[in-house]
User: Fold Basal-body rod modification protein FlgD from Rubripirellula lacrimiformis.
Amino acid sequence: MSQIGQTGAASFTSQESVGAVAEQNPYGDLDIDSFMQLLISEMQNQDPLEPMKNSEMVQQIGQIREIGATDALTSTLSALSSSQELVTASGLIGKQVTGLADDSSAVDGMVDRITVETNSENDSRSIKVHVGGKTMNIKNIREIQTG
Assistant:
């Protein structure tokens, strides 16, 4: 009877290691809302006869705060990056650039103006550089010539 238990334990260990390799980061694809729902659901469905220890509760509250802080930091860095991109683009006005236009044609000329386009579906914005009659994303500039 002890052999059956050992065999089962060995089988579980091998399955566990296979699962560990296949899912190295099982929560990597979770967004912040999904993770928070999972965490709140876990807290709501705890066994009332075996309540969570205070240290575990503090640990979970700490995780919630850490997630909120990380989300706020990500938003702040994204806004900062976007602002920096606009400052960089405005410094290009009057300079000679080459790059790839939005219609996939080559562009070579002086930057006339800069515009900001927003996409409400994914809450993003992109900086557009206008050269003559062509428009290109600032990320598609290949060369900037001074003077």
